[in-house]
């Protein structure tokens, strides 16, 4: 579904570019900028129903790594994890081809009431090296999100949101105690 939406917007963007004259006016460029910005946000879209519908998620267990290898990461499934009263603690490992490859880790907390989604950010995540959005090449970073305690956590990985089109060779995510 996400791929279809993205392709529709790419087609619209392309048709706008083709219909523009050699010197497009400011309104055409503003429209194209808006569409491209909207397409980029599609990569972060998570339907709120994932917090309550087990058919939309894959459960994660502590110390059970999820690995994508051989450049196979396009869009991962939505994973769900409940850290209980503990912070969300995780390890994220990337191959040596990072940062010249594409990977994005997206983590949301299902907050009460109504399971509203709250996205993690560099301000809410503390890591021993790198950051939530800047990872470690050929190594593992350990990170913690204290504010995500007592809430279910939804996460996924994809290769979008980067200037590189090739996914990283190996990507591993693991929740830890």
Main sheet: strands, sense, barrel: 5 strands, mixed
Helix content: 10-25%
- Count of the domains: 2
Reading side by side through the largest sheet, how are the strands ordered? Answer: 1-3-9-5-6
How many β strands by DSSP? Answer: 10
Helical stretch count? 2
What order do the helices and strands follow?
A: HHEEEEEEEEEE
Shape: globular
Which architecture name of the largest domain does CATH use? Sandwich
Kindly identify the CATH topology of the largest domain: Jelly Rolls
Query: What percentage of the residues does DSSP assign to strands (E)?
Result: 25-35%
Which structural class do the helices and strands define?
alpha+beta
Q: Mean pLDDT, rounded to whole units? A: 79
Which spans have pLDDT < 50 for at least 5 consecutive residues? Answer: 32-43
How far apart are the first and last residues' alpha carbons, in Å?
A: 34 Å
CATH classification, class level of the largest domain:
Mainly Beta
Task: Give Rg in angstroms.
Answer: 18 Å
Key traits:
177 residues, alpha+beta, 2 domains, 2 helices, 20% helix
Question: What would you note in describing this structure?
Answer:
This protein has helices at 2-19, 26-42; strands at 57-59, 66-69, 78-81, 88-94, 104-111, 116-119, 126-127, 139-145, 152-158, 170-176. The protein folds into two domains: 2-42; 49-176, Jelly Rolls (Sandwich), CATH 2.60.120. A hairpin with a 4-residue loop joins strand 5 and strand 6. Strands 1-3-9-5-6 form a five-stranded mixed β-sheet, with no helix packed on it. Strands 2-10-4-8-7 form a five-stranded antiparallel β-sheet, with no helix packed on it. Mean pLDDT is 79; it is low at 32-43. The protein is of the alpha+beta class.
